[in-house]
């Protein structure tokens, strides 16, 4: 996935030392008896599993989660550690899972039925997402008929990023009540419950394994407070052209922006095909030496135009060939996500496939 | 870019015969003396240049446009035809352009200065986008000092998709007025003006080359009327799990959807990391046998939950393993774009990198 992109106007820098530091910071929240698994689905949230997985393994990670079997194969190519597939066990896939030593997360009675006794697996109990997972009222019956014991019993939080929602505590209660109703051997199986926010907010749910994702990659797991994680990704983009738009002229597709005065404009070679969403049209910002430059008009497929004329007099305006900041010290991935009307996760997983990637350490 | 994705829950089918038919339909709009170039930037709008370019060449295309030099290299790997880079000529890149026979589109006086006399190039005159391109008032001076004649003089429409905007006619007028003021040899250079919508709406601007993009890939170039193009892309996704959500329960992250009654739910293995935008949360639809199934709660990174309980009695509900339609006969790429709050272009260029791709003919 890391391809050289000669003369690319966009650079993504991945700070693997920060990724490793984030792994260690999360590890410091849990007792030594608790395993810190790493969620590396969606190509390690867009960073590239071939970079992220070895870095995380070097930092101590010994268990990885992905969404799909094909992702598990990409991770298997770079690690011998256990890999679990959150998306379940597709019909006819059991032999391939076994061959590559991939662990299915069993989400439904059908998944459990399709899983051979000698394929190690995880049971996922749904405690309130209504998405994937076994309904709590079905688990006891399924357990009583089980061909073998799962490696882990897991559940997934719906609202742990929300500091005031009581729902996470309710999910933990439902999970524990469900487990307490199972046959004795099932009560001894280790638990995997916490996502990133859960790790920081719910130590009572750390149990035997945590599964952080977004916090590893620098997203803020406690949005109401300062980010305890280090940023991992920086994106900069080169100015292709600087021009003066005249008062009364319009900018971009469908003339959505009319210039009130003569305005210095810079156009960069990045657009929605690079994962910079069109929803940022006319409202998001790029940064030049720490000062915001507003997007003028619509984000196009490969180009964005920003205003560069309102900089303080002490700040020389940028020129063709200068680099603007998209994500970096002045604009966090969380901040950019908010200004695009979404969340850091969607920004990260949409990261450019056309950019030049630079692996920092 | 086409990688096998074993046991992938999502399939993208590319109908190369429809792509070729669309090329031929556009060709039928212009005289034989007009070249029909194909815009294949952003990896052929997400379809994959290694499939799209040979198919288009077989249909008659002999000139290709991309956004970046690195994209030009990917296209060069599959064709010997001329390839032009819309994003200009980066400093220090001229020798690489020459070596790979790539044509820069020169957008600024700086681009023109950086272009050696023996590197064939295109001049881009900005007639109202205020994005990239030479300002009309600068072109005569630049032409009088030019080291060599460009291959083509181009401009780009801002509002040609809008049936009632007078701005396209104004842009054509500005372009022609600019050319009329140039030294004689520049007045004889062929023109490249029309994008997809321009091809259908503005025959007076067909000139010597047209440059369709979105219409090749099945997007509607005349949104106020029935789509004259054939759909090229179908996306289907497999149900990972069917469940009954109980009245009063919530669905998905942050409990944004509460079930008014017991509801049959299906969860599919596709989410915003696959390019299905989070903006579709709670409002977009997937289709089962032609009937819409509304997305319940938030789109997650790898999963979406839809309601499947309101189907007519004659339609048996889908089961785990059945395939739902994302883009296909019942939901066009334009329709999905609108229901995600954006346009077909952004949907296409965000297409899944995790899906299994099937090349239909």
Structure write-up:
2 copies of one chain form a homodimer. With 361 residues, chain A is of the alpha/beta class. The first copy, chain A, has 12 helices and 20 strands. Chain A has helices at residues 16-27, 41-45, 49-59, 69-76, 94-99, 109-114, 136-144, 167-180, 184-187, 196-201, 333-339, 344-349, and strands at 10-15, 35-36, 38-39, 64-66, 83-85, 102-106, 122-126, 134-135, 152-154, 191-192, 209-210, 233-245, 250-251, 257-258, 263-268, 285-288, 291-294, 304-307, 323-327, 356-360. In chain A, strands 3, 4, 5, 6, 7, 8, 9 and 10 form an 8-stranded parallel β-sheet that branches. In chain A, strands 1, 12, 15, 18, 19 and 20 form a 6-stranded mixed β-sheet that branches. In chain A, strands 2-11 form a two-stranded parallel ribbon. In chain A, β13 (250-251) and β14 form a beta hairpin. In chain A, α1 crosses α3 and α7 packs parallel to α8. The longest helix of chain A is centred in the middle third of the chain and has 14 residues, at 167-180. The mean pLDDT of chain A is 95.
A few lines on this structure:
Two copies of one chain form a homodimer. In chain A, 26% of the residues lie in helices and 22% in strands. By secondary structure, the first copy, chain A, is an alpha/beta fold.
What is the end-to-end distance of chain A?
Answer: 19 Å
- Count the beta strands of chain A: 20
Q: Which sheet architecture does the biggest sheet of chain A show?
A: 8 strands, parallel
* Quaternary structure annotation: homodimer
CATH class of the largest domain in chain A: Alpha Beta
- Structural Rg of chain A: 23 Å
The greatest inter-chain interface is formed by: A-B, 83 and 83 residues
The CATH architecture of the largest domain in chain A can be named as Alpha-Beta Barrel
Q: Rough shape of chain A?
A: elongated
- Strand pairing plus helix content of chain A: what structural class? alpha/beta
Q: What's the CATH superfamily of the largest domain in chain A, by name?
A: Alanine racemase
DSSP summary: helix tally of chain A: 12
The domain tally of chain A reads: 2
Helix % of chain A is 25-40%
- Poorly predicted runs of chain A are none
> What do we call the CATH topology of the largest domain in chain A?
TIM Barrel
Strand content of chain A: 15-25%
């Amino acid at each position: 996935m890391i391809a050289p992109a000669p003369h690319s106007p966009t650079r993504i820098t991945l700070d693997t030392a920060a990724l490793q530091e984030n792994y260690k910071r999360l590890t410091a929240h849990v007792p030594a008896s608790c395993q810190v698994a790493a969620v590396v689905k969606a190509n390690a949230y867009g960073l590239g599993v071939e970079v992220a997985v070895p870095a995380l393994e070097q930092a101590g990670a010994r268990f990885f989660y992905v969404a799909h079997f094909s992702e598990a194969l990409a991770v298997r190519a770079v690690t011998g550690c256990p890999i679990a597939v959150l998306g379940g066990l597709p019909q006819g896939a059991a032999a391939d899972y076994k061959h590559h030593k991939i662990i299915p997360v069993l989400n439904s009675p059908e998944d459990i039925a399709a899983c051979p006794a000698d394929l190690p697996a995880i049971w996922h109990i749904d405690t309130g997402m209504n998405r994937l997972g076994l309904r709590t009222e079905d688990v006891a019956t399924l357990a009583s008929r089980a061909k073998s014991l799962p490696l882990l019993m897991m559940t997934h939080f719906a609202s742990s990023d929300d500091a005031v929602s009581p729902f996470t505590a309710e999910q933990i209660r439902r999970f524990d009540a469900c487990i307490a109703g199972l046959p004795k051997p099932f009560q001894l199986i280790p638990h995997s419950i916490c996502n990133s926010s859960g790790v920081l907010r719910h130590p009572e749910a750390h149990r035997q394994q945590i599964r952080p994702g977004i916090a590893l990659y620098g997203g803020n797991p406690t949005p109401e407070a300062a980010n305890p994680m280090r940023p991992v990704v920086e994106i900069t983009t080169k100015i292709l052209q600087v021009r003066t738009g005249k008062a009364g002229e319009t900018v971009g597709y469908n003339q959505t922006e009319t210039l009130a005065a003569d305005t210095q404009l810079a156009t960069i070679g990045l657009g929605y095909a690079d994962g910079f969403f069109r929803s940022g049209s006319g409202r998001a910002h790029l940064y030049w030496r720490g000062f915001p430059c507003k997007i003028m008009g619509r984000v196009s497929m490969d180009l964005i135009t920003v205003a560069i004329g309102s900089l303080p007099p002490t700040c020389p305006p940028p020129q063709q060939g200068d680099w603007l900041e998209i994500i970096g010290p002045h604009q966090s991935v969380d901040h950019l996500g908010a200004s695009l009307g979404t969340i850091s996760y969607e920004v990260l997983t949409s990261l450019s496939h056309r950019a030049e990637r630079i692996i920092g350490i």
